[in-house]
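# nightly structure sweep
# worker-07 picked up a monomer target from the shared queue
# config: single-sequence mode, recycle default, output format = C-alpha cells
# input follows
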Amino acid sequence: MDRTGLEIAACLVGLALVSGYVVGAIANRDRGSTKGVGLWPMLTIVWIAGCDTAMVMGGYVWWRNAYGALADFDENFDRNLATDPVAAELAQQDPRLRQEIFRATRRAYARGGWPEARTELDNILWTHAQLYSDDAHFVAALRAEVEMYHALRATPDLCMQYSITGEVSAPSPEARAAIERFEAAYADAIRDGAARHRTQPDVKKPEPSEAEIRRVLEQAATLPAPLTEAEWQALAQYADADPTEYCDGTLKLAENELALPESEAADAERVLHQNVTTGRWADLMASLGVPADTVPEGFGCPKPGTRFFLNTVTADDRPVMQTVVGQHGFECRLDSTATGLYGWTGGLTDSRNGYHQERAAIRALWPLQVGKTANFAAREADGTTTRVSYSVVEYGRYAVPAGYFSAFEIDILFARHDGRQKYLLEEYWSPDLQWKIRHRFRRLAGNLPDGNIVTNWDLARIEPASGHTEP
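# output follows
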C-alpha cells in the first residue's frame, strides 16, 4: 500500500476511534460525569487534519490517473492514429469520422489503456465496412480470407492466432503474402463503407436479429461442406480450442459462405463478423450447441445419381422414382417424381417441415442403436401441439421387391395433445443402402392426417449411379 493509501486507512481508523470516544463521553455526561468531554475538540481537530491530508492526496492521485493520462491521449491522438494508415486516411477525409474515433477511443482508453483503444478503433472501422460497404467489396474480402486460411492451415497455431487476435508471429512468406492480400481487401471494404457513409449516411444494412444470426450460422456450418462435431466445438471453445480443429472449422465456415450467391455471402459475412467484433462469438456458439445438421457418426447418403423406384405411383399414375442429388450435412437431397426437389433429414423426415427441434431429435438417434429414443413437441398452424416420439425398435433382415436387406426399424409416433389424432410411422433404414427400404403408416386414433404419408410402400428397384440395375 502506498503513502496515500495508508493515510486514507488512518483516516478511517481515526474516524472509528473518535466515534467510539464520543459515544463513551456522551454516556458519561448522561451519568453526570464530565470525563472525556473536554477532549472532543482536540480529537476532532487532529482527525480532520489527518483526513484532510489523506483526502487531498487521494483526490490528486485520482485526478492524475483519470485525467493526466487522458491529457497524454489527447496530445498524442493523431500521432497514434497514424500507426493505422487506413484509419488516418479516413479521419483526414472526414472530420466527423475523426471526431467519432476520437471520442470512442478516448472512452476506451480511460477503461483499459491503449489495448482497449486499439480494439475500439478496429470495431469502428469494421462497423463502417459492415453497415455501409457494398456486397462486392465484402465478398472480395471473404475470398481473400479463404485464401489466407488455406495458406495458414499448415501451421494451425498461427491460423488460430490470427483468427482470434488479427496478428500472427513469424508466418511463412506464402502466409505473409496471403495475409497482406486479405488485409488490403479488408481495407478496401472499409474505405468503400466510409465513402458511402459520407455520401449516403442514412443508407445502411440493418442489424440482424437473433433468429437471423442463428439461421446464417447454422447454414454456414452445414452447406455445402458440413462441420464435424469436433470443429463446431472448437469454434465454441474459441481461445481454448484445439488449433487444428479450430482452423479447419474457420476455413469451412468461410468456404461455405463463399459458395452462396454474392448478396447472401456478403450478408453471412456481416452477421458472423459482427459477433466476432462485439465479443459475442464464443457465447453465441456455446448457446446454439452443435447444429442438428452437422454429420453424426454412421450417417450418410447414397451416391448422387442413384435412383430408387417404389412400388407405388404418383397422383397421375406415374411410378415414384427418387433420384439422389447430393448430401448437405445431415440432409440427403432428392428429386422425386411425386414431390419434386427436396431434402430428407437424417433419412427420416422431409426437411421442408421446418422444425429445428425435429432435426435435433433425429440427430440424437445417431449412430442408430436399438433402444435409442428421442422426442419433441411441434406447434401446428392451427395452434395445437403435436408430440412426436422416435424409437429405434429393432434391427433385422427384411424382404422387399428389390431384395433382402438388413435394416433398422424406427417408429415415429405422432400424438395431438387433445387426443383427436394419433398415428404411427414405421421406417426401415438400411445401412448398406443408406436409404429406406420400407414405409408403413398405422392409424391409432382420430382422422387420417392430410398428405401422402398414408401411402405404404416398399423399395421395388435400385439403379446405382453407374447406371446398372441391381438384382
